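re: that chain from earlier
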Amino acid sequence: MTKPRPSDVGVLSFRYLGAHEVDELVDLWGALHQQHTVTAPHLADIISAVSLDESWRRRRAQYVSWLADPDTMAILAESGDDPAGYAMVTIRENAQGSWDRGERVAVVQTFAIDPEYAGSGVGSKLLEEMRRQLSAMGVRDIEFSALATSSEDIRFLEQEGFRPFVTTMVCRVDGFGAHD
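^ sequence. v structure.
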């Protein structure tokens, strides 16, 4: 039985998780993993999907590693006691190049919203909390990747002020030529 879908979540609370709490994110990661596999079937011939369990094992280890850095943020958005979404954000040093992006840049490693909260404002409020924290840390720019075929995610990011910057292309090392 599913919960009634909230049309507007109203007040959210935000909790910052430590490495010992990452297992609280497993269900939200599972929903994101499902979305990834459904949204990007065009990649199946060059990037193999892994099972949910294997996916979580790998991501969990990465979260624990990232959270060893005190600047990394794992922000859990909750509506009452219900986990509504989360963001895992790392900070990287920024080598100055063609653009002045500041000395450090935030990288959104994961941004997951419970499908039951889609369109309810959770994503916008979670981004607002992220921006507040990053601003206090002196970070000016955020990098946020979205699957090229996820038009809903891209539209959401554009509505939130993001603009396309770099396009990442993938192929197999042995995949030469236009028809391989």
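The beta strands are 13-16, 73-79, 82-93, 104-113, 141-144.
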